Amino acid sequence: MPQIDLYFETMLEHKASDLHLSTGNPPIIRINGELERLDAPNLVSDELKVMLMEICPEDKAKQFLETGDVDFGYELPGKARFRANFFLQKEGVAAVFRTIPSQVLTAEQLGLPEICMKFAKLKKGLVLVTGPTGSGKSTTLAAIIDYANKVRSEHILTVEDPIEFVHKSHKALINHREVGLHTKSFASALRGALREDPDIILVGEMRDLETITLAIEAAATGHLVFGTLHTPSASKTIDRIIDVFPAGQQNQIRTTLSEAVKGVIAQNLFKRVDKPGRVAALEILVVDTPIANLIREGKTHQIPGMLEVGKKKGNVPLDDAIMAHLKEGRIDPEEAFDKSIDKKKFLPFLTREPEPWEL
Predict the structure, then answer these.
(1) For residues 266 and 248, is the Cβ–Cβ distance under 8 A?
(2) Whole-angstrom Cα distance, residue 130 to residue 283?
(3) How far apart are CA 161 and CA 182, in angstroms?
(4) Structural domains of the chain, with CATH
(5) Using 50, 70 and 90 to split pLDDT, how confident is the model at 101?
(6) Which residues is 35 bridged to in the sheet?
(7) C-alpha to C-alpha distance for 11 and 28, rounded to whole angstroms
(8) Is 256 exposed, middle or buried (0-12, 13-18, 19+ CB in 10 A)?
(9) The pLDDT value given to residue 281
(10) Cα–Cα distances in angstroms (integers) from residue 306 to residues 281, 286, 309, 314, 323, in the given order
(11) Which residue from 46, 292, 306, 310 puts its CA 20 to 30 A from 81's CA?
């Protein structure tokens, strides 16, 4: 058994989301969003490197030595998968591991709104799940894909770097592809996907112009495409996609995007105060004709207002989702205030006077 597996066992025992191994520091785990040091000696660079190389695939080890960082997936058989990142820092080598549970949580277990399941039933279009790093995007997407897997007799193709949640085919056929292992890049996988008879395509990260272009084209030509971005809100997500394109192409992409995008789920994680764990607040945008027109006309700044008036269609403003958790006593008023958009709504819940720069 690799020596590092003992740390993974400790992670699982404490229900930690992340493990940090950094030269010059003891092992550190993240529990409910906060770092906790393990009772162990500081790590030594050469010893840590040997430990890390024991689980690193040969091609990834070569990449790490050449570039100074690398990503890959590692599995503790029958228990969990981990997303690994190795990197070099001033004191020596370091690594971060993110826990990926072996069991996919269902939409019901996560408490996802019904509209998320409706996205899984779409025949074509682009659905984006967005939020900061570590906000639970992959978990939400996995639940949506799990639902589609159970209700649709179709082909689901996932492209990730690395593969995170592993789905067994149920009613659907699911094929997982990992960038660097099964395909050269997200873009090359998407080009190949159109010849692989997919009905649903999951793009682990829409990180560059070519990948975003191909994802939009796939959505516009009869496929249901799910993807992720690191954006804080639904309107910012639309802006981010458009801004990736050169100025001369932005009018054209607004039109194409307005026809392709069907929904945006923007989420953030909060530490629970009622019990151990974390809970997600989801902003949900259902793209109907009026919102598609705003995208086409470059009036995305009006989308937040449309979220407010379109709640019957399934729209959920982020502040409403945060407020619901706050009123139920699940989250701390300070964190709610900090992560809200219209902070004035949350002032009555604070026990202090906020600084001017916080508003």
Answers:
(1) no
(2) 10
(3) 10
(4) 5-101 (3.30.450.90), 107-316 (3.40.50.300)
(5) confident
(6) 30
(7) 10
(8) middle
(9) 95
(10) 19, 10, 5, 12, 19
(11) 46
Distance CA(202)–CA(72), nearest Å, equals 18
Mode of pairing for the β-strands spanning 18-22 and 173-178: unpaired
Q: Which two tokens stand for residue 36?
A: 């906790």
Pairing of strands 34-37, 28-31: antiparallel
What is the signed CA dihedral for 306, 312, 317, 318, rounded to 10 degrees?
-160
Contact 238, 295 (CB under 8 A): yes
Within the chain, residue ranges assigned H as helices are: 5-13, 45-53, 58-67, 107-110, 114-120, 137-151, 186-193, 209-220, 234-244, 250-260, 289-296, 303-309, 318-327, 333-339
The 10 Å Cβ neighbour count of residue 144 is 22
What pLDDT does residue 312 have? Answer: 87
SS3 79: coil
Calculate the alpha carbon distances from 237 to 30, 50, 142, 257, 338 in Å. Answer: 28, 41, 20, 12, 20
| 176, β-bridge pairs | 158
Residue with tokens 């008879």, as numbered in its chain: 197
Neighbours of 357 (CB within 10 A): 5
- What's phi and psi for 289, nearest 5 deg? -60, -45
Residues 44-85 have pLDDT tens digits of 999 999 999 999 999 899 999 999 999 999 988 888 889 999
Q: Looking at 80-171, list the stretches that DSSP marks H as alpha helix, in order from N- to C-terminal side.
A: 107-110, 114-120, 137-151
Q: Give the number of C-alpha atoms closer than 13 A to the C-alpha of residue 111, restricted to the C-beta side.
A: 7
Count other C-beta atoms under 10 Å from residue 124's C-beta: 16
Listed residue (132, 101, 310) closest to 236, CA to CA = 132
The rounded Cα 237 to chain-centroid distance in angstroms is 13
